[in-house]
């Protein structure tokens, strides 16, 4: 079986492309279950050099969807088979990769929320999971299972929380090696401090979840100025996790305890530094020497450290409570913690290592373009390293792979997939070919041992 499944999806010509010449394409089913795509660009296309006028991918595609295939067909082929595993508490990741306007959002979320056959992969999955959870909930009177949704867009080192007013959060690796996405430290009205992570909204039925998602996506649009182009300049991440109210509360309690620890930890550091500074003076040669008139108040340092240790213990106790609660609920419901992660990647037009940045870009756009290239290259390398079972997987290479690390580590690659969204318009030949080249490299990664 292919270590990481790659699919390609041709979208139909849009209204303003009607009359455009289409890319000539051919699919070859190889001896394995994998297919390859050959494309021959029309000769009047001036977007390709002669060298690039025809090209064949390696056998790397698990499936290829044609323009008449709707979202339901894609869902059935790509995601439906992993849902039973998610209902066993496992995780899977799905990526949409393609240039701006090629159909990533159409595939991941969909634009028609009313017709089930048009729901994107994320909403269709949520609908199926909610149906299953409703059946389980009806049979038991104790735990009520639902889906926690997180929705954020990633740009450089920041994540913008679309379920929390587009609040900016930062991607950081903690001393424990885990990656955290946290907002700025906020001072609340009651004087308490809070360090917000990305918000998880608990939903108990499909309609609520769909509404939350739509509300968040509107923020994505209004949080930017030139909507279409901007949406391609961020990676949108949607996480769906099966959970209960108690579990969510236990996780909120951890955040609360961690927030309480922040000022206490800072005070302990300040006290230590203050004491060390008072304990030295500058001599006539400008060197720091011990201050004969001051003795470090070790008692003050110890008291601050003891208080910090106390608050650290409170965090650990909240974490232990969450962990034991998780274990006890999952003994009753194996689906707890089952997770699906969908990533609508930034436009692949930025991934053009050979030709560099696009014309007419501002300095900021160029810098963002470079970051997106780094992210997309890093993602390919992570998938390749995992498929080849290398000892070192380069998760730290970019903020995107840092954020996705926990999801990759929790999931099996054979249950994850990338969908390459491609336009059949000859005008987009170069972009389409770049997308196919990238996907082909991802798809054959496991064979290059
Ligand atoms: N397979 C498809 N069938 C029908 N229409 C499609 C398909 N794919 C995309 N479209 C339409 O094409 C347009 C652009 O698609 P979409 O917004 O999904 O592109 P995108 O890749 O997400 O763009 P961006 O990266 O700029 O956000 C939309 O109007 C969408 O409805």
UniProtKB/TrEMBL annotation:
Gene3D superfamilies: Kinesin motor domain. ATP binds at residues 98-105. It comes from the Eukaryota. GO terms for molecular function: ATP binding; ATP hydrolysis activity; microtubule binding; microtubule motor activity. Coiled coil: none annotated. Residues 3-445 form the Kinesin motor domain. One of its GO terms (biological process) is microtubule-based movement. Keywords: ATP-binding, Microtubule, Motor protein, Nucleotide-binding. InterPro entries: Kinesin-like_fam (IPR027640), Kinesin_motor_CS (IPR019821), Kinesin_motor_dom (IPR001752), Kinesin_motor_dom_sf (IPR036961), P-loop_NTPase (IPR027417). GO terms for cellular component: kinesin complex; microtubule. Belongs to the TRAFAC class myosin-kinesin ATPase superfamily. Kinesin family. This is Kinesin-like protein. It comes from Penicillium brasilianum.
